[in-house]
From TrEMBL:
Family classification: Belongs to the TYW1 family.
Protein name: tRNA 4-demethylwyosine synthase (AdoMet-dependent)
Pathway stated in the Swiss-Prot or TrEMBL entry: tRNA modification; wybutosine-tRNA(Phe) biosynthesis
Function: Probable component of the wybutosine biosynthesis pathway. Wybutosine is a hyper modified guanosine with a tricyclic base found at the 3'-position adjacent to the anticodon of eukaryotic phenylalanine tRNA. Catalyzes the condensation of N-methylguanine with 2 carbon atoms from pyruvate to form the tricyclic 4-demethylwyosine, an intermediate in wybutosine biosynthesis.
Cofactor(s) needed: [4Fe-4S] cluster
Any GO BP annotation: wybutosine biosynthetic process
Annotated catalysed reactions: N(1)-methylguanosine(37) in tRNA(Phe) + pyruvate + S-adenosyl-L-methionine = 4-demethylwyosine(37) in tRNA(Phe) + 5'-deoxyadenosine + L-methionine + CO2 + H2O
Region (Disordered) residue spans: 252-293, 308-333, 658-677
Length: 677
């Protein structure tokens, strides 16, 4: 035995702990494991308790009270339909009566129901709310004289049609909204039978809403009515609607409940509208694509359109032959820019066409400001009153075929004026008359302010930016002069392909040059210009613009594909900040968040730390008159008629470019949320 061990005292506690350390470690590990398991169990029980409480709160008190012992199931019942809104447009009261009858049937299902007169409904504010509301919207609309909607539904139908053909709304604007349509008509008027209900159905679908039950068509003509009366027609449709509503309440997505053969049924096929192109947007070119899918109801229209185009082509060939055979002493008569097919397509899109090559259309911002809301970025940046602004063009033709063109390239193109020409006096006179007639249609429309309606009848600004290339019009200078003589400011937009015309322009209030790309290759791909020397023309146009002494404006350009590719406002701000860092003489002056654009202005318009980007339009008109009286001897610059920019329009202001007088801004700001303005 080792004698050194004799000196160890094994009765010492420390020695005992050391010898038995393995068992001590094992005990500690076991204790820690128990503690971890205990914590997991406790947290799980706490989560279940919180979940129970949240589910308890989600159930109405009346429901909790009706349950035995006050206990409720932990599983929350999904709500697939929160209620039904019944909209009606009636002239004689029939649709209103049907709406009341349908509301009574819906109420029997214990669903909230509201009956709404379309005359008192503002789709611009409220329709998009139905996307997330889980309400089913039923539309009972009558077709009145000449296939038009009733007076009470006229504004709603007009708004819906324009929204469906406006690329800014897009095909997903109403995605998630369920709807059903019943039409009231008379088959004695075969060409207009239930036209309004068909259109409402189509427009809702084009905006992304989904039909929950097949459209019903009531017929006042008892002789040809399938069921003997319009009341019987409605009764059958109402039964289908209520039955479908009950299925939707249970969460069934298909009318058959998915129990039919191969999961398909006739009713489901009937209720899904096949994707089609908007004839308003694409005009006569839709049918040329053999792979496009169209609504069955539009096949007849497409075939007629094809026949019409064929006849028109034959007619044009005959005219060409006549021109070629004309004697040398006689100059060939130039053809009109607007062909019959193009006239029909543009008219459907809401254009008021003037003569053979001009047009005018009411801007959505004009409508917005008439109703007490904010204006477009031109109002924020320069003080243009949108409700007094006329959007027009003296030339529907263009020298580019831009990939982002919202006219889908249905308008004529060319590098020079080769059409019949109308006089500027006639164009301006008819443009103002047509604009005023469109303003008159807003009399009595919900929300329209009386003072702004009266002001809207007096045109103060003209935006030559509707479509096409206005500067191509040979008499553009005379047209501008006429505008200024009428005390109407001019806002001219050009695509940077006509540098000589830009250089030769007489005084214009504002001149815009669209810069859609930064390199020769990208410009060719994006704008697809017709000129072979397009890049040279582009650079010379910018040089000509610089010589005019105008303010440079940087704004985000729309995508060539879909709205999904458009950058967020924060991304535009980031880009513009980097751009301004490269041009020291410029700063960001204003922003208009709704339009997703910013104004970059030269520092000479910043006086004593304050921006002066707005325009004194009365002073401008005085200066133009002096210029004309002197025969062009006097000259003036933008600084001679500038005005101070209001605080709310400045970059970084809390209003983000929203006019505080905008009624929607006031409502949103009251709730501390202006995101939807």
């Amino acid at each position: 035995m080792d004698p050194s061990l004799d000196s160890w005292d094994f009765s010492s506690p420390l020695i005992s702990l050391w010898i038995n350390r393995f068992y001590i470690y094992l005990g500690f590990a076991f204790g820690i494991s128990l503690w971890i398991c205990f914590q997991i169990v406790i947290r799980k029980q706490l989560f279940i308790f919180k979940d129970k409480n949240s589910k308890d709160k989600s159930v109405p008190k009346a429901t909790r009270d009706s349950m035995p012992n006050g206990h409720i199931a932990l599983q929350k019942k999904d709500i697939f339909v929160s209620g039904v809104k019944i909209f009606y447009g009636s002239q004689t009261g029939t649709a209103k009566g049907f709406a009341a009858s349908l509301a009574e049937a819906v109420a029997s299902l214990d669903l909230p129901v509201a009956v709404i007169n379309l005359q008192e409904y503002d789709p611009d504010d409220h329709l998009v709310e139905e996307v997330t509301s889980k309400n089913i919207c039923a539309f009972l609309v009558a077709t009145y004289t000449d296939g038009r909607p009733t007076e009470s539904a006229e504004w709603f139908c007009k708004w819906l049609e324009e929204a469906a053909s406006d690329f800014r709304f897009g095909k997903t604007y109403l995605k998630g909204m369920g709807y059903a349509v019943f039409g009231l008509g008379n088959s004695a008027y075969a060409s207009h039978f239930n036209k309004v209900s068909k259109n409402v159905d189509k427009w809702l679908w084009m905006l992304g809403a989904h039909r929950v039950v097949a459209r019903g068509e009531g017929d006042c003509n008892v002789v040809k009515s399938k069921r003997g009366s319009i009341e019987a027609d409605f009764s059958v449709w109402k039964t289908k609607f209520i039955s479908r509503l009950q299925a939707l309440q249970k969460g069934e997505k298909k009318p058959c409940g998915g129990n039919c053969k191969e999961g398909q049924c006739e009713s489901s096929a009937e209720e899904e509208l096949v994707e089609s192109s908007s004839e308003e947007e694409s005009g006569v070119e839709d049918h040329e694509n053999p792979n496009s899918v169209v609504d069955v109801e539009d096949l007849g229209k497409i075939m007629n359109c094809a026949k019409k185009e064929k006849r028109e082509k034959e007619h044009q060939e005959e005219n060409s032959a006549l021109v070629r055979s004309t004697g040398k002493g006689e100059g060939p008569e130039r053809r009109a820019m607007i062909t019959p097919a193009l006239r029909e397509a543009l008219t459907k899109q809401g254009y008021q066409l003037i003569g053979s090559h001009s047009g005018v259309k009411l801007c959505r911002w004009t409508k917005s400001m008439l109703r007490g809301r904010g204006g477009c970025y031109k109002h924020t940046f320069y003080g243009i009153e949108s409700h007094r602004c006329m959007e027009t063009t003296p030339s529907l033709a263009c020298a580019n075929k831009c990939v982002f063109c919202w006219r889908h390239h249905t308008n004529p193109v060319g590098t020079e004026w080769r059409w019949k020409m109308d006089q500027p006096e006639m164009i301006l006179k008819e443009a103002i008359e047509n604009h005023q007639n469109m303003i008159k249609q807003f009399k009595g429309v919900p929300g329209v302010k009386e003072d702004r309606f009266e002001e809207g009848m007096m045109v103060k600004h003209c935006a030559l930016s509707l479509v096409g290339e206005p500067i191509m019009y040979p008499e553009i200078n005379r047209f501008l002069k006429l505008l200024h003589e009428c005390k109407i400011s001019s806002f001219l937009v050009t695509n940077a392909q006509f540098p000589v015309e830009i250089r030769n322009l007489k005084p214009v209030t504002q001149l815009y040059v669209s810069v859609d790309a930064s390199t020769k290759d990208s410009l060719k791909k994006i704008d697809r210009p017709l000129f072979k020397d397009f890049w040279h023309r582009f650079l010379n146009s910018l040089k000509a613009l610089a010589a005019k002494g105008v303010t440079y404006c940087g704004e985000s350009s729309a995508s060539s594909l879909t709205m999904a590719n458009v950058p967020w406002h924060e991304e535009v701000v980031h880009f513009v900040r980097e751009l301004v860092a490269l041009i020291p003489d410029y700063e960001i002056a204003c922003e208009h968040e709704h339009s997703n654009c910013l104004l970059i202005a030269h520092k000479r318009f910043k006086i004593d730390g304050e921006w002066w980007t707005w325009i004194d339009y009365n002073r401008f008109q005085e200066l133009v008159q002096e210029y004309e009286d002197s025969g062009g001897a006097t000259d003036f610059s933008a600084k001679d008629y500038m005005a101070k920019t209001p605080h709310w329009a400045l970059f970084g202001a809390s209003e983000r470019g929203f006019d505080p007088k905008d009624t929607r801004y006031q409502r949103k700001n009251k709730s501390k949320d202006i995101s939807g303005c």
